[in-house]
Amino acid sequence: MRVCLFRHFGAISKLVYCSHYQSSKFRPIQGAILDSPRSATPPLDDQHAVERALDGDLDAFNQLVVEYQRLAYSVAYRVLQDQDAAADAVQESFIKAYRALNSFRGGSFKSWLLRIVVNSCYDMLRSRKRRDTDSIDDDAVDQDYASHMVDATEGPHAYAERMELSRHIEQGIAQLPPDQRLVLTLCDIHGYAYEEISEITGVPMGTVKSRISRGRGKLRDYLLENPELLPSTLRPKHE
User: Fold this and answer.
1) CA-based, 20 to 30 A from 45: which of 51, 92, 133, 223?
2) What would the pLDDT profile of 21-44 be if each residue is shown by its tens digit?
C-alpha cells in the first residue's frame, strides 16, 4: 500500500500517494501539486488534528490520512472486491472528509470517516448496476492485516496452513452480499462492537446483528461445502 498525502491546489483538493508498501495498488493523481510545509511537532490526537486541519494545517490532515488509510482500504476492498475500485473509494472518501470537516461534531473521527468510506463504496456498487463477478486474485488476502497476525512461535507448516485458511475465508467473504461483507469485515476482522458498526453503517443494531449472523452462517456453509479448500487439519472428519 502507498501512504497518501493530502495537498491543496487552488480550489481543488487532491491526494498524492507515495512511500510504496507492498499490498495495494494505490495510484497517484496526476496534476500540479503544491507541497505544504513539514512540521516536526509530535502527533496530535484526532480531535486536535481535526481542529488544526480546519485552521488550514494540511500536515494535521495528512496525519489523519496516514493513520486511517490502511483501515479504510481494508474495508473498501472487502466491500468492493476490486483493488483499483477500493483505492478510488478511499481517495474519494478522504477528499469528501476534508471538505466536510466542518460538519464533524466530535466523537470518534474513525467511525465518522468509515461511514464516509462505506457510503462511497455503496455509491460505487450502485453505479455498477450489477454484482461484481471478478474472480479473487491469489493475493487477495490483505498482507498488511496478515502481517500483524504472525506468531513468532508457530512453525512454517502451521503458518502456511493459516495463510491458506485466510485465503479461503476471503474467498468465502467475497461470495456474501455487500452488506454482509461489510459488517463481517468490521466485526470479525477489525473488531468493532455492534454499537460502533451501527454508527458506521447507519443501520439499526438489530439489523447489524442479523447481517453478521447471516454472513457468518453463509461463510460457515461455504467452507463446509468446499472442504477441499481447507487445510488438511481442519477438514471435517467422516465416520
Assistant:
1) 92
2) 333 344 433 332 234 444 445 677
Identify the pLDDT of residue 118: 94
Model confidence pLDDT, tens digit, residues 121-145: 999 988 875 544 444 344 444 444 4
Q: Which of 17, 22, 20 is nearest to 87 (CA)?
A: 17
pLDDT at 53 over 70: yes
Domains (ranges, CATH) in the chain?
2-30+40-128 (1.10.1740.10), 143-234 (1.10.10.10)
